[in-house]
């Protein structure tokens, strides 16, 4: 899932995504990054921009890897949530109702139970 044109700021919360393979730039990927895919992370800094990609450091891996902004999803983005059910969706701990539009979580409580 690409989100070209979205520039992230330091402190933005994103869901990390696997880099797509690009014929010119390759994948720029390490197998060690795989375990962070689908996880929430905070942008800790911008590394730089190539022709089509912007790279960022995130807190999840203590800034070890360079992550492409184009493969990240802003946490608040609900439209992306619908397209990535494996990343999103949680069962309310109180009423057990499943909510597709929230981040995966073990201690999610739905809006009605909270209020
Ligand atoms: Zn509930």
Task: Give the CA-based shape.
Answer: elongated
Q: What is the makeup of the main sheet? A: 5 strands, antiparallel
Query: How do the helices and strands follow one another from N- to C-terminus?
Result: EEEEEHEEH
Q: How do the strands line up in the largest sheet?
A: 4-3-2-1-5
DSSP E strands, number: 7
The gyration radius over C-alpha positions equals: 15 Å
What small-molecule ligands were found?
Answer: zinc ion
- When the domains are counted, the total is 2
Helix vs. strand class: mainly beta
Supply the number of helical segments.
2
* C-alpha end-to-end distance: 34 Å
Fraction of residues in helices?
under 10%
Mean pLDDT value: 85
pLDDT < 50 stretches: none
Give the amount of beta strand, in percent: 25-35%
Which labels suit this protein?
115 residues; mainly beta; five-stranded antiparallel sheet; two-stranded antiparallel sheet; 9% helix
Kindly summarize this structure in a few lines:
This protein has 115 residues and is mainly β. It has 2 domains: 1-76, no CATH class; 86-115, no CATH class.
How would you describe this protein?
By secondary structure, this protein is mainly beta. It folds into 2 domains: 76 residues, no CATH class; 30 residues, no CATH class. 9% of the residues lie in helices and 28% in strands. It is elongated and about 50 Å long. The protein binds zinc ion.
Secondary structure blueprint with pairings:
Layout: E1 13-15, E2 40-49, E3 54-58, E4 67-68, E5 73-74, H1 78-83, E6 88-91, E7 98-103, H2 111-114
Antiparallel strand pairs: 1-2, 1-5, 2-3, 3-4, 6-7
This protein binds zinc ion (ZN).
